[in-house]
Amino acid sequence: MLIHSSPNAASFLHAHQFKCPLPFPTAHLIQHSSLGCGFPKSAYLVTQMKKSLTFKCRSLGGQEEDYYLLDAPVSAGDGFSFSGGKYSDGSGPADEWFKQGKMVQAYLVCGSGEKAKDPIFGLKMASSSQASDDVFRWFCIERGNADNPTVVLIHGFPSQAYSYRKVLPVLSKDYHVIAFDWLGFGFSEKPQPKYGFDYTMEEYVSSLKSLIDELVPDKVSLVVQGYFSPIVVKYASEHQDKVNDLVLLNPPLPRAVVPSNSGTITLHFFCAVLKITDKHANLPSTLSVFGNFLLGEIFSQDPLRASDKALTSCGPYKMKEDDAMVYRRPYLTSGSSGFALNAITRAMKKQLKGYVEEMRSTLTGKNWKTRTTICWGQRDRWLNYDGVEDFCKSSKHKLVELPMAGHHVQEDCGEELAQIIAGLISKQR
């Protein structure tokens, strides 16, 4: 923040006023530089009062419409970012990752076509928060020979396709590998909720079908991590003819532990099972806070909470600065990432338990024919390992334990996981 002597600011147009108690008795100019505090690009402070100062703010120069940009081009910055999200003028790790991928169109946009407004101020949002006019754009990374069997790597909540960066080069030696960012995450589109996409779990199931149909004409093997597992199992149950293999990485599973002796279920046992089930069917506090009223809107705009803490609080993963720059970029460049995080968190808080219970019923049901493997990082701080082995035995699914990995298995032991996946999935197209 730079403080200089102020000229007369009365001539500035479209002024909005904000009160700020600061102990300066004379007129000054405060020029906004790198604070993500919600003010427009320039803020002028003019006062002769001793107890308080008055901010006078106007829109970016040259703009005819009198609305506040919540997100804007990186060169301009926006009210929910820090210096426009750029760490330097040169190319950074996030830029290099983006260059390796492509944008794929899938899933028709629904809605009235009305321009999105932010939920806090009710002001018109810029292009990154607007739904496409026709079909959504997804960011995808594609590696390996397209003639080989296809494996789709699906990240968890909240994360990005970038989490599979260590898996991709190993697995792509023998397979055609695709990783993508879900709508609302990473570099995929992030429409404002209620303006074309509401981030419900039903919408994610439908949109996943559209994307896979667009990417893979033949059969496919799916690898999914964490809290998006119930969505992928729901898709796979409806399209088993499309799926070769399914690999679940630390999914939320309600535990159905079989009594060891007479088969009689006591009240104590029943309560213990319910307790474990409830824990797996609810988001941990680190994530559920993003769905809270008002506090969720604030925390979801903080890249350290939305990316760093969410990824490192659930296991042994230690984030390097170059990786952090990729994960933070969506939150640094646009408020739309935070608003999408609010929406999916609230949807999961309402719907996750039902989807988790349905997933368990599907995986243990007689109609489930897809070969399924559960890989479990045993240092997961969010999901308890109790009952995982019993579930796999009762459902006759293969279990692979990874003692040194946490919730985000692909981050903690990416190369090892790639070798495991390569040994599990079918080499038939």
UniProtKB/TrEMBL annotation:
Keywords: Hydrolase
GO molecular function: epoxide hydrolase activity
Annotated ranges, domain AB hydrolase-1: 149-412
InterPro entries in the record: AB_hydrolase_1, AB_hydrolase_fold, Haloalkane_dehalogenase
Domain of life of the organism encoding this protein: Eukaryota
Residue runs in coiled coils: none
Protein name: AB hydrolase-1 domain-containing protein
Organism of provenance: Carnegiea gigantea
